[in-house]
Queue: 2 jobs
Job 1
Amino acid sequence: MSEPGDDVLEALRALGAEVAELLRFEHESGGIGLLEHPIHAERDGASERTARPERVRRGSPELLAPAPEGTAAAPARGNRSSALHEVESLLEASRRARARASPAPIDPAPADVSREGERRVALATLAAEAAACTACRLHESRTKSVFSRGSPDAELAFIGEGPGQNEDLRGEPFVGAAGQLLDRMIEAMGLTRDAVYIANAVKCRPPNNRTPQPDEVRACAPFLDAQLDLVRPRVIVALGKTAAERLGCVVEGQGWRGRWNEYRGIPVMPTYHPAFLLRSPEMKRPVWEDLQAVLARLRAAR
Ligand code: URA
C-alpha cells in the first residue's frame, strides 16, 4: 500500500536517475569536467581507485535504482527524511554542476516572424529536395534520405559523416548506437538533443556503411552549406575525419582532432566520431576535453 510522500520519493528517484545519467558519461570519459573530484566507478566487477567523494558515492546509479524497502538502498520509513535529505543534496550538487557546465540561456533577438518563417520553409524545402535528389549513386540504395535532427535555432551544431542502417530506415540522423552515445555526450555538456542541430556530410546511406567517397561528399555539399547558412550556429562540432575534411579542418600530414578551425566564419571543433569511441572508449577523454573547449567558446560568444 502506498503511503503519503511515496510519490515525492518516486519523483526524487526519477530526478536522481537523470543525474546518474549525467554522471555516467563522466565516469566513462575519465571523471573530468562536471565534477570537482575524479570518480572511480566500480563496473563489471573491476574496482578502480576507491577515493571518490562521499556525495558522489551516495549518488551512484546503484543507489538510485529502486530497491526493496528496509535494505541499505531503500531506507525504512523512519529514515525517510534522511533519505530525502540525501537525494536533495545530490540534486543540489547536480544543479551546481550543470550551472558550471551549461551556458546561460541568452534572450533571443526580437523575432522577425516572417524571416523566421521563411527560414523554416527554406529548411523544409531543402529537406524535400534532398529526399528527391539523384545527384550521386547513394540515392540508388537509400530507404530514406536523412536531413537533420534538432533545433534550427541551435547555437551548437554537430555534423557527422553519413547515415547508417538505423538512420536510413528512420530518416533521422544519429538514432543508432553511435547516436545514443552522442546523446549522452550532449547531455553531459548540460544540453539536450533537441536544443542542438545535427546533420551529416552526406544525406543518403553509403552501402554497408562504407565511408562516403569524395565525389559523393561534393555532390551533397550544397545541402550542408545551405543548412548551415540557414541555421548559423555559433559553434560547429565536426564528428570524425569525413566531417572534419568537409568543413575544412584537415591539413594532410597534421593532426586534425581538437584544433579550432573556421567554416564560413563559424568556429569548428573537429573531434572523434562517437562510432569510433564505441570501439575505442579510451578516446572519450580527449573528446570530452574538446567538448569542454566548445562549451567555453559558446560562453565566450555571449
Ligand atoms: N554516423 C553518422 O555519421 N551519422 C549518423 O547519422 C549516424 C551515424
Job 2
Amino acid sequence: MTEIQSPDTAKPAGKIMLVGIGPGSQAHMTARAREAIAEADVVIGYVTYIKLVAELLEGKEVVRKGMTEELDRAVSALEAARAGKKVALISSGDAGVYGMAGPTFEVLFQAGWTPDDEVKVEIVPGASALNACAALVGAPLTHDFCAISLSDLLTPWPVIARRLDAVASADFVVALYNPKSGRRTRQIVEAQRLFLRHRRADTPVAIVKSAYRRRERIEFSTLDRMAEADIGMLTTVLIGNSHTFVRHGLMVTPRGYANKYDLDAGGDTREGEKPGRSLSTGLLGWLDTLQAEHAAGASAEALALRHRLPLDYIVSTLSEPVEAAELADAATAGDEA
Ligand code: SAH
C-alpha cells in the first residue's frame, strides 16, 4: 500500500548551519565549512565575511547584513529554513565565539523552536581568532588562558572590568577580542591599567591584526606600551602570563615542565617529583603539606593568606585529611597523555 503524503510532510525540511569560516583564508577553513556553504541555498553574513567566501557563492541567494543586525540575520535564517531552504549563517572564526550561534538560538527559542523541530540546526566549528593569532606568534596559549571582549555594545563596563581584574590577578594568558574601534578607544587603555595592577610592565603582549588576511600585521609589545600600538577592529591582543617570554620573535608560555624536570641538567626529574605523577605540590601532595603545617601550628588564616585562597576553602580542606591509601594510589597512577 502506498502512503499518501500530505503536501506538508513532502516539503523538504530546512536547515540552519552556523558556519565558522576560520580567520579568513581559504586554507584555514575546514572541509565541512566549505561543504556546508556548498550545500546551502541561502548564505547570510556580514559583508566582510561574504567577501571572504565570494568564490563559493555562485548561484546562491546571498543576504549581506551590517554589523549590528545579528538578530535580523537570525530571523531571516529561520524564515528561510521554515520555507524549506538550507541556510548557512557565516561567522568569522568560530560561530560560537562572540558569533552568531548564541543570538540564533535565542531567536529560535523565542519562536518556539526545539531540537525536535523539522528545521535542523548544525554548528560547524572553525578556528577562532585566538587560535589563528596564537599560531602566528608562537605558542602563547600553552597554559590556562581566557578570552575577554572589550566591546561594551552589549556588556556593561563594570562587568568587563571585573573580569579583566579577575583574570589579571589569576595570571591567565588573555586574548582580548574587539579591543578597539573608531568609536571605542579608551577600553584598551582601561584594560591596560587594570592589568598593570597585577602584572609586570614588561609582560609580553602580541598584537595581531587581520590574521591570515591580506593586511596581516604582527607587532610585539609589552604591557606598559601596548596601548600605543596600532590596534583596530580586526585586531586581537594576546597578553602573556607571568611566565610568558619572547625569544627569536616567538611568544611562548611554558607548560610547566621546568617545575618537574631540571631542563638545564639534561632533563633530570627534580628531587621529590616523579614523571607521569602529580607534582609534589599537586592536589594531594599540597593537602598533605597543608595538614602538616596546620598540625605544626600554622593557623587556617595564615595558610589562606600564604596560598592566596579563601579561608573557608582552607578550613574545609583541613577538615578532610588525605587518607594514606589515597596518597599511595596517587603515587602509582599517572595521567593519560
Ligand atoms: N567569531 C570570531 C570573533 C568575532 S568578534 C572568532 O571566533 O574569531 C570580532 C573580533 O575577533 C575582532 O574584533 C578581533 O578581535 C577578532 N578577530 C576576528 N578575526 C580576526 C583576524 N583574522 N585577525 C585578528 N583578529 C581577529
